[in-house]
Amino acid sequence: MDLSFTEAHEAFRTRLRSWLAENLERPFTEDLRDPANGADELVEIRRRWQAKLNEAGYLGMDWPEEWGGQGASVVEKAIFAAETLAADAPPIPNFLGISLLGPALIHHGSEAQRRRFIPKMLSGEEIWCQGFSEPSSGSDLASLRCRAEPDGDDWRITGQKVWTTFGPWADWIFVLARTDPDDRHGGISFFLVPLHQDGVEVRPLRQITGESEFGEVFFDGALAKGEHLVGKLGEGWRIAMTVLSYERGSSALTDPARNDGYLEDLIAGLKENGTLGRPEVREKLARLIVQNEVVRANGYRTLATLASGRAPGPESSIEKLLWSEYAQRQSETALDLLGPRAHLRLRSPHARPEMDWAREFLWDRAGTIYSGSSEIQRNIIAKRVLKLPTA
Amino acid sequence: MRFDLDEDRALLKQSTRELLEAESPLAESRSVMEDSAEGYSKALYDRLAELGYQGLAVPEENGGSGVGWVGLAAVLEEMGRAAFPGPFLDLVIAAEALRGAGGEIADAWLRKLIAGEAVVVLADRETLSGEEPDRPGARFAGGRVTGTKHFVPFGRQADALLVTTDAGLVLAPRPDAGWNAEALEVLDHAQRFAAVTLDSPATLLADPAASAALLATCARLAAFGASALMLGLVERSLEMAVAYTMERQAFGAPLASFQALQHREADMFLQTEATRAAVYRAAWAADASPGEAPLLIAVAKVQAGEAGRKVCGENIQLHGGVGYTWEYDPHIYFKRIKTLEHFYGPVGDQLEAVLAARGV
Predict the structure, then answer these.
(1) pTM score of the predicted model
(2) A318 and B273 in contact by Cβ < 8 A?
(3) B285-298: buried (b, 16+ CB within 10 Å) or exposed (e) per residue?
């Protein structure tokens, strides 16, 4: 057993920290709080930050060298994610493109697709969104009905996608569409579709927090060029499933690091309120710290397993359940303990400037639903790990 | 980075499992738990001593084999799985106290403990409430220790007790006439506790300040060791639940095919694996990054307690009617884990340790 970082890892962290200190103009929380910044301005700030990261070589670090790779492993990626978060850097706008589509093109795309799409994906010139979920197909994704029909050498896409993160600002979408109605999994193909065309309408979808980072995408005979089919016809399901595994481990350190900051804020708020000495407050706070350390311990396990060259097993389902359920408990406890002021949104008069607990409390409901709901994770553990029989 | 055990410790874990499966199958250890006064098999503890188990975590310069806390965790996890009865963890704790105290007498008893020639346990409880006074009521004067200690683990059979007193930690060898001890009948029928009334010759091992430091180390070791045992207990409880629900038929299908039960077993698995991550992270820190160890040991203990409640309780529930019979095994695990939760690093202490580590 060895849960320590190598000297090379620590050197990477040191270089990254000094780069962040030189290049980050101000914490992203200040951008968020600034009333001059509407949703579009915030996206622009994030886009500029992504371009900076790309110039410095921090994006696609673990990809092949010709596509921006630096020979980095999942450990450097995890350190990068944790450090940029600790510095309160803006999240990059093209995270779906870089974390999902990039690896998909590298593993399953054509050389022409890689040349056409990867550089602009990394620079942020083209923002991508993901077209997987549909109104009638969430957890049961393979039931999707959005269809692609041949039109000469090209394809026409018709149907609806929903919960499309970053849809309102995206330029392109990668879409799972049905090319054979009779083959549940083998009848799904993977297409790259431009959003700025007739036959595509993107509507913002307002979330529980009041923000609209999501969208709905309506296709009505939208054009997908023949050369923009990824992999072979009918390989979409397989590509989508493997793509989801590429990101494993890279956020292993991020959530506990984010939560360290949140817990510090909670402690500061309790001190201000003068309630930190109460036994029931102390117990609840201590239990949060414990749970966050358990999430971190599991993250180290995932990372160490990946770093020693083995595919993580059930750890990824455990990781999803642990962080998402912890987050709900953390924000709900914070609201319970901090009193009425915790209801104040970030830009409200009298709000504590550091932290929008009300937003976290609302947004944390999403974590147990997206990217494989808690129920799906429990199904995975029951079927694939415990090998329990089907009724 | 690597989460797996290295080759030596993996081998130690595997051979411990094989040894316990061969020599301490539950059917046999059940009768030791139920029928013997001692609560453990002397022959088996002798065998463990021959193989060096009692001195595993003791550094080599003190006569042990120094496998570190990761190695200790691996062994205790296996003992937990087997619900192995007796004072093994108590011996590990006492060995650490003797090693920390040092000096001729402590060294001599440490050697006997490692050789399997003496059972030495800590006698540090005086109240029934668990709210211990800052200064022990037991007294040491004129070479004698007097006072009453409660819940002394395996105290009636102990060859020596490490007693907390007003003057510090003392060592009291068993008088020729035996201890003046009452056997306590407790929730966990595998556990032996005694209330011991002392009035016998003793040797001072450490003054109050040194004792406080020793006892703090012992408390961490107790919490850590219990967490590792609890990991094994929950791991085995989950296996029992899965095996039973796969076999048991209801409504024309195995119980395990019903999603309501599958999700509960998935949660049991989640708790078990979260405990594994926490216990081995704590073990690694104790060996390699001691500054983090106090926090991470407390974290492991709290997590193991949560997992124990969930997994060992659910194991009974998923067994249905036979789950609360004496004949089936779930109750043995359910009881063991409660003893470990409450007597070896109670949760309140751990939560305060967590806050202290965070500077709160």
Answers:
(1) 0.94
(2) yes
(3) bbbbeeebbbbbbb
